[in-house]
Amino acid sequence: MERGSAYHHGNLRETLIEEGIALLAERADGDISLRQLARRVGVTANATYRHFANKNALLAALAAEGFRRLQEGQGEAVRGADPGQGLREAGLAYLRFAWRHPALFRLMFGPTLNRQGDEELTRVAAASFRALRSAVAAAHGLDEEAAGVEGATLRTWGLVHGLSHLMLDGQFGWRAESPLAVAEQALTDAVDGPL
Amino acid sequence: MERGSAYHHGNLRETLIEEGIALLAERADGDISLRQLARRVGVTANATYRHFANKNALLAALAAEGFRRLQEGQGEAVRGADPGQGLREAGLAYLRFAWRHPALFRLMFGPTLNRQGDEELTRVAAASFRALRSAVAAAHGLDEEAAGVEGATLRTWGLVHGLSHLMLDGQFGWRAESPLAVAEQALTDAVDGPL
DNA sequence: AAGGCAAAGTTCACAGTGTCAACATTGGGT
DNA sequence: ACCCAATGTTGACACTGTGAACTTTGCCTT
Questions:
Q1: Are B84 and B168 in the same domain?
Q2: For residue B181, is it within any domain?
Q3: How many domains does the structure of chain A reveal?
Q4: pLDDT > 60? residue B139
Q5: Number of residue pairs across A and B with CB atoms under 8 Å?
Q6: Is A109's CB less than 7 Å from nucleic acid strand D?
Q7: Terminal alpha carbon distance of chain B
Q8: Residue A38: which domain range?
Q9: DSSP labels for A43-79?
Q10: Mean pLDDT throughout B25-46?
Q11: What's the pLDDT score for residue A4?
């Protein structure tokens, strides 16, 4: 939190990421402008170019931070659950993350970002998939490399991810309950029944 | 295709939708500019304002046309399949639509569009859901209003929708096969096995 | 301690965007 | 034949992402 001189900000890069996520949380539509973020931080738009190659790189950093937080949330959920319920809890954590950070979630996936060539981003995303796969394997009592685990992981991921998107896009809105509740119910039913 | 005078275009509204979808197909990232579209059609940017309240309304019209085409494609797929395979074919049609029209697909769902208050758009989207529900009911040999059909529809929709998004976002790209093939396989497995 | 250099911010500039207000050109109905 | 409403155009404005040139400052070397 240390501030440098009036001229030199001190730790602009981290501040931009922090405030960028905050700004993303306010604008529901999810597109933020570089200049707006710079103004909020109290710095010129071009100052950001000392820390990120361009807007896309900045957004990629936000997304990477998002993946880290998502994985952290899932980790907590799994640890706090009795074994056998881990997969369900991880899925619910995924849904709740999307619900609480809709714009960030859409940035992490979604086409705004050009993921091509961003090494860190692909790394955290891959780690996220491996974590899910191990949860799926554990839920079925299988080895992580066993046949069928990969496919089951894909189906689970697809379901959770799809429910997240439909929820955020307001496709559950016309129903009585809260969209989050609808998605949670659908996920629970799927996990309890055979997937 | 009739052209009016040099000054009056003739049927600008339909042309904008047509060329808008074409333009969307070219720009993979999926955001098109009003002025670019107007230039392509051979008309001033402000001319579009005679037919659409603003850019959002234009995009909504594109999305609505997209929903119509999606539903048409699903209808064909279901009719051309033997009964019992209808649901799977409908889902595969959904996947292939997303694969062939990624930008349009993301526009139809996704936050670029402000769906609030666009009556036509919510209507076609609701029709799409009803069609899916009847396919789910038929696949399980149940009445459309039977208990559990709604939930099963949600799960199916979620899975297909999620696979579509993950596929488009390149999350299956690191695998050997084509992303479309990966998604189709996952869907087929889910439908064959109990969902 | 003095000096200088590279890192980190700033200002200026430019092309492109969505949209508003005012003006121009038409074709169809009285 | 006329006129008016529908349909286009021009000009303008605020805003965006980004490049080039300039300024300030903290740290490292002597």
A1: yes
A2: yes
A3: 2
A4: yes
A5: 107
A6: no
A7: 47
A8: 1-51
A9: S-GGGGGGT-SSHHHHHHHHHHHHHHHHHHHHHHHHH
A10: 95
A11: 65
